[in-house]
Amino acid sequence: MATLSAYPNTNTNTNTNFLSPTDQSNHDRESIPPMQNHPSAEPDSDANPNFHSPLLDPPDSVPPAVAPSSLLHLSFNQDHGCFAAGTDHGFRIYNCDPFREIFRRDFDRGGGIGVVEMLFRCNILALVGGGPDPQYPPNKVMIWDDHQSRCISELSFRSEVRSVRLRRDRIIVVLEQKIFVYNFVDLKLLHQIETILNPKGLCAVSQGAGSLVLVCPGLQKGQVRVEHYASKRTKFIMAHDSRIACFALSQDGQLLATASTKGTLVRIYNTIDGSLLQEVRRGADRAEIYSLAFSSNAQWLAVSSDKGTVHVFSLKISAGSPGTTQSRSTSEPVVSSHSSLSFIKGVLPKYFSSEWSVAQFRLVEGSQYLVAFGHQKNTVVILGIDGSFYRCQFDPVNGGEMTQLEYHNFLKPEAAF
């Protein structure tokens, strides 16, 4: 982890949606229903139904002379317009376009935040303590209201929280072998899901205006489980022979991209019927896939790995609802129009007729990067665990190397608002 100098929070005016007046003209104000302070009545051995609201006010901000900060967590918000960083002193919120830090909160006791989950651009966050000196116990999810500058509720568990996902109507908490789905308004426990060992806290939820689709690891190696809550259907997909390393959902929840621990192939599935729609190749050698992301129109897929290259693939999903798209035969190789070897499809092994990425961007090999599509056309935003922020543009017709448009180190003092 990179360590860079920390400095005190100078923003004393906490906005209800993390946006300055100039930003609000370009973004709708996000809101959720007011939370009711009713404890969950669902008994469970792992989910402790102890909710406390309100909690005590947080400790004062960090004084100027503090130790350097280490980055513990990075995550985009649901529309990829902002991202959150958890450090060993607190958390920070950044706007992607234009890039700037819009909020930070540093704590003077403990301070380590291992998970920060935003809810679009509103004032509600989910926090989990982390690092060597956590601000909160790592087995608790703290619901933070920055309009009130304090935690308003907490969810307690008997094991460490691996990740949290938020929607306007749901809170999803991921433990190592179990997932809990809560109603956001009253914190009532709605669903429990058993999973295979899931130390990364893999989980994805749809963010469209429609019904909730949730994807998580199944109970077998290489299997993913898809929950369609509107139709009350559960679909299991045997996506890979190896263990699942990463997956992503399209905004509407109809497309699922998966990668295994082998890291050579990425597969795109229809979540409704579980059919394989497309298969693309990241490379020939093993790699650890860190991040997968669909573009907002599901035309492109971005992939980052420990090989130091971000790839952008063209998705060949036909127009119309992906739910009605006919899947390709899993035995027929997917041939890219960019492959010079496509004419020998079926003669040589499948590797030579694989569908390769349209565009690439080179980074430092071995470092961890998170990727998403920017709000500007044909742009990709890349976040590094070293504090790096890149905005790149790709050519959708000719492909090739992406053009770097912007770079910042968001942990440096000069990145402050």
UniProtKB/TrEMBL annotation:
Keywords: Repeat, WD repeat. The keyword Isomerase does not apply. Its main location: membrane. Gene3D superfamilies: YVTN repeat-like/Quinoprotein amine dehydrogenase. The lineage of its organism: Eukaryota, Viridiplantae, Streptophyta, Embryophyta, Tracheophyta. It is found in: Preautophagosomal structure membrane. Residues 1-64 are annotated as: Disordered. Pfam families: PROPPIN. Belongs to the WD repeat PROPPIN family. This is Autophagy-related protein 18a. One of its GO terms (cellular component) is phagophore assembly site membrane. It is a peripheral membrane protein.
